[in-house]
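In response to reviewer comment 3 from the previous cycle, which asked for concrete evidence that the modeling workflow produces usable outputs, we include below a single protein chain processed end to end. The sequence was submitted unchanged, and the resulting structure tokens are shown without manual editing.
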Amino acid sequence: MPGTIYISGLYSGIDWSQMIDQIMQIEHKQVDILEDQKQVYQNRLSAWQELNTKLLNVKTQAEDLSSVDAFNVFSANLVASSGSAEDFVIATTNTDATVGVYQFTIKQLAYAKVDSSKSFTSSSDALNLSGTLEIKATGAADWTDITIDTTDSLTTIRNKINEHTEETGIIASIVQYAEDDYRLILTAQETGTANAFEVGQTDIAKTTNGLGFWDDAGTTENTVQSAQNAIINIYGEDAERGSNTITDLIPGVTLDLLKADENITITLTVERDIGQIVDNIQDLFNRLNEVFTYINEQSSYSGTEESAPPLIGDSNLLFLRNDLKNRISEGVSWDSTTHYLFEIGITTDEDGLYTIDEDELRESLTNNFETVRNLFVETENSTGVAAKLNEFLDFITDEYADGYVQGRMDELEENIDNIDDRIEEMETRLERKREQLYQQFSALETYIAQMQQMQQWLTQQLGYLSKGG
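The workflow returned the following structure tokens.
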């Protein structure tokens, strides 16, 4: 035992240490029974946790499909009168799009204003320039003054300008055109004429002994790219935007302009993305089928397997399956009419799993879109299947609610904790008993040793008596 050394059978010749181990093995069977029971609970808990994960997967998809926006899915198809339309524009849609056909030409792209300094032989050497560089965003009331010192290099000036980017809308950079040709480039942060900038005609901005953003007379600015707006001509009318990403021209459509050519007509067709909606519905029922398949596996046992499934005989599984089935199979009513999933090609097979006739579903989405949508979503007048599932699954899987899935897992965890407490208590008691047995047998060894010593003494005395006689 820890802290105590016992020598078994030193005087008795009996291996009582082994005897104690055998006794404790028998005593420990009560703990073994609890350990077996704990394992049963742990297996059930693991099974419920796996089922809970599958239910949460269903909930995620059901939550998505319970929104009207889940059915406002559109595709954008572009065709150019010559060449590839994707060379000129990329179109993406959102839930605000509407079905329609649009034709337009891209007359020009939006550009940001760019000014260049004169050429310098180094970006790191002091330029020996001094003065004030005035810059501001077009339309701003006040100039931003950048103080240039004689020790400043092109890099230092760039950094000083960029400290004021938030107020000026200008980003300064250095471009190396050749080995001894470095130039300071000023670029507007945003495209379009409204986002241009101005450079003041101070001496430091002029060519002679300055940075060279203006000629010496202050009449010509060294602008290498002028600010301009994008222009799209749609059905004979020009629409100007300050950016090449246009979100407010066609409802629910974002146009990213890449190239301008007013002789190329682009045709944009916006359609409902039936394929994506079908995939989303299929995903929901695939996830549901995973749940029902798992419940079927846990609910059946033929006796030929090594062991029964952990949840065999658990009535909560039947409650769960029935509750799910009821929310899926019951009709959805609006406008005094009740509709069912089988009307759009969603039925169950002999195993209770859901199958989808994709052709029938596509036809329903094409011809009776609102009916399909209302069978799933939540509206002012109805609560569809996906909305019902989302609400139900949110309740039974919420760890703070009283739903029976989370409640069953909590109950099993509590049972495991209680068994752990009992095992710990029993292990402590058995350890005390082991110590007690060791002490008793050790005391017996001591007693036997004393008897053996007394026997030796008596034999010795008898020997003395016999010699004396």
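The chain has three domains: 1-73+273-469, 74-110+229-272, 114-225. We consider this sufficient to address the reviewer's concern, and the full set will be provided in the supplementary archive.
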